[in-house]
Amino acid sequence: MLMFAHHVAVEILGREFSPHTPLEHVCTFGGIGLIAALTCYGGFALCRDLAERMRTRRRLRP
């Protein structure tokens, strides 16, 4: 169902947008892919940093 969700018109900056041409589809999927990749990397970086902080706190305690 998510694959066909891009055919629903959305309002972007006050204008209705729904991809029709192959180029619009490529741009839409590229933008969604970029957002998904950055979200996944952000989650990974958060977990990595929290794990490192926990390890550092354990080493500092007497």
How would you describe the overall organization of this protein?
With 62 residues, this protein is mainly alpha-helical. It has one helix spanning 22-60, and strands at 10-12, 15-17. A two-stranded antiparallel ribbon has the order 1-2. A hairpin with a 2-residue loop joins strand 1 (10-12) and strand 2 (15-17).
Brief account:
With 62 residues, the protein is mainly alpha-helical. Helices cover 63% and strands 10% of the residues.
Count of DSSP-assigned helices: 1
Q: Beta fraction of the residues? A: 5-15%
Number of strands: 2
The overall pLDDT average reads: 84
Low-confidence stretches: none
Biggest sheet character: 2 strands, antiparallel
Q: What's the shape?
A: rod-shaped
Q: What is the terminal separation in angstroms? A: 54 Å
For the largest sheet, list the strands in their spatial order. 1-2
Radius of gyration: 20 Å
Helix-and-strand structural type: mainly alpha
Helix percent band: 55-70%
Q: Return the string of H and E elements.
A: EEH
Q: Key terms for this structure?
A:
single chain, 62 residues, mainly alpha, two-stranded antiparallel ribbon, rod-shaped
Question: What's the layout of helices and strands?
Answer:
Blueprint: E1 10-12, E2 15-17, H1 22-60
Antiparallel strand pairs: 1-2
